[in-house]
Amino acid sequence: METSYQHPSPEGYYGRFGGAYIPEMLFPNVEELQARYLQIMEEPAFRQEFNELLRDYVGRPSPLYLARRLSQAYGVQLYLKREDLNHTGAHKINNTIGQILLAERLGKKRIIAETGAGQHGVATATVCALKGLECIVYMGEKDIERQAPNVARMHMLGAKVIPATSGSKTLKDATNEAIRDWINHPHDTHYIIGSVVGPHPYPDMVARFQSIISEETRWQLKEKTGRETPDRVIACVGGGSNAAGAFYHFLDEPQVELVAVEAAGLGIHSGLSAATTALGRPGILHGSKSIVMQTEDGQVVEPHSISAGLDYPGIGPLHAHLFDSGRGKFLSATDEESVRAAFKLAQLEGIIPALESAHALAALDQLDLVNGETIVLCLSGRGDKDMATYMKQLQMTNGANYE
Ligand SMILES: *Cc1c(COP(=O)(O)O)cnc(C)c1O
């Protein structure tokens, strides 16, 4: 049989990564999803409502924009896939729309989620308001303090934000609380996971919802250039959902190079990094087997990145397999390189990117680019949420010019 990178095995394995490593108490919840997600997602009525909401509520298709001045600077044809123009400012809404429609069809009345920086919490609170479903977001106590604007957004959208007060009081602890909640509410609650991570079927389900990114890219590129496939696709990787979506319809086209960019933080070997493939090894994190940053004896290492969305000690199992098999090229960009790349995009194109997306842009400086090649870069989100960080940089450099 031809092997496809798109589809995991029936047990949810991409190569040797994936699966469902969960406490027995969660079996009923996860098995229900495993049994029904594909059938529900393939129903014509589901597809129709999903596509209508993506169009009329999210604002899709997101433009594929030829960045002329940035292209000129690199001697390439660089197209930006503008996920930053989506409602709520990033790609995350594609997934939460899909999962809320799924939850409705499973008859769930209560939605839970965990969030670190609050971006996924906001995307979840948004779709719960849209559908009139109860929304509970678990968030580390420390993150609640650090991310006040997103906490306010969630409250305004009608969600309840519950602080996780154990351990380091961050994402990991919020995830534990969400899992505990789900165990206690097996019948009426759906858990919306925000990236291509977690036990099977989440990585496949989220990749399918995000695959709209590359589905659109193919016809948009055809319209603009006459060909459907670029030479390269570049995307940043936290858990890996925007990259999975941007790669999806090119995964089985080996002539398209897939470039995944992780956050190197202060430097891969600085002790303050989130470059999972460079630093990690196989392990189990959040219910699936993947590559995980861990100590000798298997304790998960606290990651660091200037961008909250990439500050994660693992990657989804699809990406672990792309790395392991050599199908994907994995690079990393430091905090400083990414901030510089953000200023460059702002000043050459008039677009202020999210810090996460700036990591993908920074990779342009590391690649051996072929003159005139066609590149699609996933601009996963907009930079409004990162202005405090950018303002610090402006103060430090006296408003320096990055052209
Ligand atoms: C959350 C986030 C990411 C990282 O998540 P992935 O699942 O790796 O895509 C990247 N960019 C933006 C703008 C985000 O909000």
What does this 3D model show about the protein?
- With 403 residues, this protein is α/β, with parallel strands linked by helices.
- It folds into 2 domains: 23-54 and 92-205, Rossmann fold (3-Layer(aba) Sandwich), CATH 3.40.50.1100; 59-89 and 211-398, Rossmann fold.
- The protein has helices at 27-42, 44-58, 68-74, 92-105, 119-131, 141-146, 148-156, 171-184, 202-210, 212-225, 241-247, 276-279, 317-325, 335-349, 355-362, 387-397; strands at residues 13-14, 17-18, 64-66, 77-82, 110-115, 134-140, 160-164, 189-191, 232-236, 257-265, 281-285, 288-292, 328-334, 374-379.
- It has a 6-stranded mixed β-sheet, sandwiched between helices. Strands 7-6-5-8 form a 4-stranded parallel β-sheet, sandwiched between helices.
- Strand 9, helix 11 (241-247) and strand 10 form a beta-alpha-beta unit.
- Helix 5 runs parallel beside helix 7, helix 9 (202-210) crosses helix 11 (241-247) and helix 14 (335-349) packs across helix 15 (355-362).
- The longest helix has 16 residues, at 27-42.
- The radius of gyration is 20 Å and the shape is globular.
- The structure holds pyridoxal-5'-phosphate (PLP).
- Pyridoxal-5'-phosphate binds at residues 90, 92, 119, 195, 236-242, 309-310, 354, 356-357, 380-381.
- Residues 59-381 form the Tryptophan synthase beta chain-like PALP domain.
- Its EC number is 4.2.1.20.
- It is an enzyme of class 4 (lyase).
Concise synopsis of the structure shown:
The chain has helices at 27-42, 44-58, 68-74, 92-105, 119-131, 141-146, 148-156, 171-184, 202-210, 212-225, 241-247, 276-279, 317-325, 335-349, 355-362, 387-397; strands spanning 13-14, 17-18, 64-66, 77-82, 110-115, 134-140, 160-164, 189-191, 232-236, 257-265, 281-285, 288-292, 328-334, 374-379. The protein is α/β, with parallel strands linked by helices and 403 residues long.
